[in-house]
Design goal:
Elements lengths: L34 H19 L4 E2 L2 E2 L1 E4 L4 E4 L2 E3 L4 H22 L2 H5 L2 H17 L2 H9 L4 H26 L5 H9 L5 H21 L1 H7 L2 H4 L10 E4 L1 H4 L24 H4 L20 H13 L6 E4 L1 H4 L15 H22 L4 E7 L6 E2 L5 E11 L5 E8 L5 E3 L5 E3 L4 E10 L8 E10 L6 E9 L2
Helix pairs in contact: 1-4, 2-15, 4-6, 4-8, 6-8
């Protein structure tokens, strides 16, 4: 017999607390150098050079790229789009989606790893952080240290630079919708409008928060692409992959040791691939949805392989079929063109061709015909039937035009208007009252279809035909 008592099982009435979300561990990625790191730097510089410089570019004495919402005109270099041209935006979004599908099917999350704004601005903010606070070890030490004057000075300076970058990013964003030179003048004179002020601060705050604090949390939890990317992958998609057959069993060893005799693989279990990962995953555990395909782990692993004197490529861009031994790395290029990628490529080529052709043949003229709502038709003193219309003519060109107006569909139909020619200034909208007069002998039925034809005198290619109804009494 013993007096020791076993602990009583927990009562069903006792609540059990369970966390729904893991506590975030702050990631301080280690700096890495290599081919893919250079690509990331190049694309960060390229995308930001385009983003920050484009609003300042002038074209025909105006801003080259300007989305003037107030005037409902959208300028893109020599083209001017109106709300009625919304179909072009739809086409552009379809092309972007198809391109994303194609690139993902071929080589995984290239967009996420190299050109996504979240990745780009996180990279910029991390450059500032490394410059002011030191390498990843110094930053980890600073995170754990108590607050003092040195830490306050470093953190304060870092956030000051971050806020400057974020506000300039927000200012540039608003400069795509309000002429940026006017925006500068209003800012310097402290006469900035409320909407401009709101969007500069809001966009800047979002940039500062996402790139400075949330970072990998945006990629892991907020971005929907991380969740459905696997649908676009197949066994021939290039992804960042750890070669298990070559690396396992992993283990530390000296550079001079005969690791094969020790029964070890090429992986020295240094953990560099984890230390350089911006989302903090271990690629050796296989492909994970958190992986953004930045290939930092490839550069880090290659550096270790070089130091150990081992071949590069323990972690590399490769396909599942290569890892399974179905074909060698040399066969990757041959398997790029497969049914899925061929379909994406053909669709992208066809839609791109249609999009470019539509832009090239786009007629910079729009005509809307509005009937007189008071009287459908009336009889003139001469016994003819008259219908009254209002033509809204939009000159969508950056050049002035003169137009003539004709009507067809009824024998002997004549157009009655104040002037035989209509002059429209660049990007001008004008309303023209027009009457159509027909002999009742020519009218067959209660209503007949007629067509207005508006033709530019100075450019035969600018022509628009609009159908409407002519009513008999």
């Amino acid at each position: 017999m013993t007096d020791d008592k076993q602990p009583a099982p927990p009562s069903a009435d006792v609540p059990i607390e369970q966390q729904l979300y893991a506590i975030r561990q702050i990631i301080q990625p280690r700096a890495v150098h290599g081919v893919f790191a250079n690509w990331r730097i190049a694309l960060v510089l390229l995308t930001q050079a385009v983003y920050y410089a484009l609003p300042w570019l002038q074209w025909d004495n105006r801003q080259a790229v300007l989305f003037d919402l107030a005037a409902r005109k959208f300028y893109i270099f020599g083209l001017v789009f109106w709300p009625q041209d919304f179909v072009y935006l739809t086409g552009l979004l379809v092309l972007a989606a198809l391109a994303l599908f194609l690139f993902t099917a071929v080589a995984g999350r290239l967009w996420c790893g190299y050109a996504c704004p979240q990745t780009v601005y996180t990279e910029i903010f991390m450059w500032v952080e490394s410059w002011l606070e030191g390498d990843h070890l110094a930053r980890k030490k600073l995170d754990k240290s108590p607050w003092n004057s040195s830490k306050l000075r470093r953190r304060g300076l870092k956030h000051f630079v971050w806020v400057l970058i974020a506000l300039w990013t927000g200012f540039t964003f608003v400069g795509y919708f309000t002429p940026i030179q006017m925006l500068v003048a209003e800012t310097l004179s402290a006469s900035l409008g409320p909407w401009e002020s709101f969007w500069i601060v809001f966009y800047g705050f979002a940039t500062w928060g996402n790139a400075g604090f949330m970072r990998e949390q945006v990629c892991k939890y907020m971005c929907p692409y991380a969740r459905f990317q696997s649908v676009m992958f197949d066994s021939d998609t290039l992804t960042v992959t750890y070669d298990t057959s070559r690396g396992e069993p992993r283990g530390s060893r000296s550079k001079k040791a005969d690791y094969k005799a020790l029964g070890l693989g090429d992986c020295v279990d240094c953990g560099v691939c984890v230390q350089v990962c911006p989302t903090g995953i271990d690629i050796r555990n296989g492909l994970q949805y958190e992986c953004i395909g930045c290939a930092a782990c490839i550069d880090g692993c290659d550096q270790i392989m070089d130091k150990m004197g081992y071949p590069r490529g323990l972690i590399r861009y490769t396909t599942e079929n290569v890892v399974k031994g179905k074909y060698p790395d040399s066969g990757i290029v041959k398997h790029v063109m497969r049914p899925r990628t061929i379909i994406y490529t053909v669709l992208l080529a066809l839609l791109s061709g249609a999009f470019v052709y539509s832009l090239a043949t786009r007629v910079p003229l729009r005509v809307d015909v509005i009937r007189d709502r008071v009287t459908l038709s009336k009889e003139t003193d001469e016994g003819l039937i008259e219908n009254v219309y209002r033509l809204q003519i939009i000159n969508k060109d950056s050049q002035p035009h003169r137009y003539t107006i004709e009507a067809h569909g009824i024998g002997g139909l004549s157009v009655v208007m104040a002037s035989r020619e209509i002059a429209a200034a660049p990007l001008q909208t004008i309303d023209i009252p027009v009457s159509l007069v027909a002999d009742p002998v020519e009218l067959k039925g209660r209503s007949m279809e007629v067509t207005f034809t508006i033709q530019s005198i100075d450019d035969p290619r600018v022509k628009e035909a609009v159908a409407t109804k002519f009513f008999n009494r």
